[in-house]
Structure formats: structure tokens, C-alpha cells
Predict the structure.
Amino acid sequence: LKAKKFAQNVLDTLILAEAEVHENLPEKVHLHELSSVDTLLDILGVTRILEEIGYFSDECKIYLSVLPLGGGKIKSAHGILPVPAPATTKIIEKSSLLIKMGPVESEITTPTGAALLTNLNIENKEPRMIIRKAVYSTGQKEFDNFLNIMKLYYGEDPLDVKDMNICNFEKYHQKIALLETNVDDVSGEEIGNFINIMENKEILDIHVIQGITKKNRPSYIIKVLCHPKDVSSNIGKIIEELGTLGVRVSIIDRFCVDRVLKESQINIFDKIYEFSYKLSYFETYGEKYIVNVKPEFEDLKKISNNTGVSLKKLKELVITQIVNEIDKNKFVKKFKTKKKK
């Protein structure tokens, strides 16, 4: 059903584009305007291949490099037309595909090709993948000093490749954004104020590194981690607050284990004190492993002031109690690794 729906959507995209170009209603567009049999064979052939490689399942992704449209002019039933053809342009302008002109003076992307690509759930980037098979397809056109070849790579996401000698961390994988900028004309007080402002925004973390830049000027490297959806708003705040001229953006991989905020109590000198702590853990092969236990500092500080017990001693008492409580909940306290043979 998904394959049939895809083929129908591609054909509808073509018909709608032709209708807009010729200012006709879609139902009045004739298939002879779409090269008829060749177009249908192209659509059905590609659909069949996609079905064979499992594209219509939820686990398959397709990545595409920047799409070359070509250049120059082409002959059509309506006369000489500039490349890309009007129908191709109509289709591309409604998509999110990254395009470029060239690299030859000829039509590289046809309306049918554009319709096929815009109906795929494509990501315009170079993927991290383990290549299992490479396929090369040559076109019928020949160009001077340019090979008319399409390369297809079929592979697997490294995170999907199972190895029973390592832990199953796939579910902890995230894509996050790293924003970076260098400033050398901002005071320490302004940096401190900036950190306070950013902590109130939708960020994951902020890090400031001192450095030396050209002409031996003291500088700061600002690093902000955030979700990709919050990149634009955070860039605006960085530029507004620091007056920097640019911000570097990288989408990076992160593995982030589970964490939960819990409440507990401790008895000191026959008096009960409440405190909070963060428990970090991961789950793999059906068992939960503790990564870290961290009592909230402000809670410990308050208890220390009230009891006279040092922060160091209090932290030891609290962590010992937490670990004993966790044992009752059947957490595994130590991460077990398999020995290499």
C-alpha cells in the first residue's frame, strides 16, 4: 500500500506541476505532456526498487548529496526552454532539497526525477554509515570532461550494527547542536552575566574556556549545547549579548544516559533532614547499571550548616544511604564488562 501511494504521489506531483506551468486544471493535463509511457516506467521502476531495498519500512533512510540541475537550454514540445525546465522548477521550489546549477550545460534533473526525489523522505547530508554495497549507473548522455554516473551506496547505521561484546547504547543516542564563538573584547563580568542569561534559556549546557588569541589578546571560547530546534533563538541571544560577529554551528552525536531526580531523608543526631539527589543510570540487556549518584549541593550545605557535620563527611553518609536504598530497588551497582579472549 505504501509503495502504491508513493507512485501515485509522484504522478500527482508531476501532473500538478505541469498544470501550474500551463495554467490548466490538473484533471485537464494529458499524459502525453509527461512523456507518457517512459514517465510511468520510470516511476514504477523506482518504486519497485525502493520496495526491494525496504524503503517503505520505518527503518530505511535515504540521503542525497546536493542535487545538480544542469544548465543551458533544452528542446521541448513547446520550444526552447532554459534549464531547469519550468515543471522541474515548480517541483523543486515546493521541496526542501538543496540544489546547485551545473556542472554541465544540459538537463541533469528532469521533472520526473525531481518528482521522485521530492516524494522521498530525504536528508540532504552525508550520512554516517557502514557501506555494504556500492552501485554505479551510467546515463545515456555523454558530456565533455564529465562522467555521467550516478553512485548509490547501500549500508547500515553504525548504531544498528550489533556487537554482543559491547553494551547496547543505541537508545541513548541523540543529535544535538554545538554553538561556538570566540570573543576577545568582553569582560569577565559580562561573561558571567551571559552565562546567567543563557541558563534561563532552552540550552543543555554552557562552557566558557579562557584562551589567548592573535596579538596575544586574552579571549574566551563560548560553547553552548542545545537541541537543533533551538539553534536560531540561541544564536540570536549569543550575538545580542556578546556582540560577536559569527557563531559556528555543528550537529553532533551524543550518548546521554537516563537520569532522575529523587527525594530522600537522612537521620542525623536523631533529627530527620530531607534532601534531593540525581541518579544517573543506563539499562542494557534487561539490567540497570548505576553511573553516578549526586546529592544536591544546596541541600547538603543546608544540612551541614544546621548540624555542624562537614560537607565531606555528610556527602559520604548520604551516598552510602542512597546506595543501600538503591540495592532494595534491584539496581546493579557496578558495570560489568566481558573479558576479551
Remarks:
- The chain has a mean pLDDT of 84.
- The chain has eight helices and 15 strands.
- Residues 2-22 form the longest helix (21 residues).
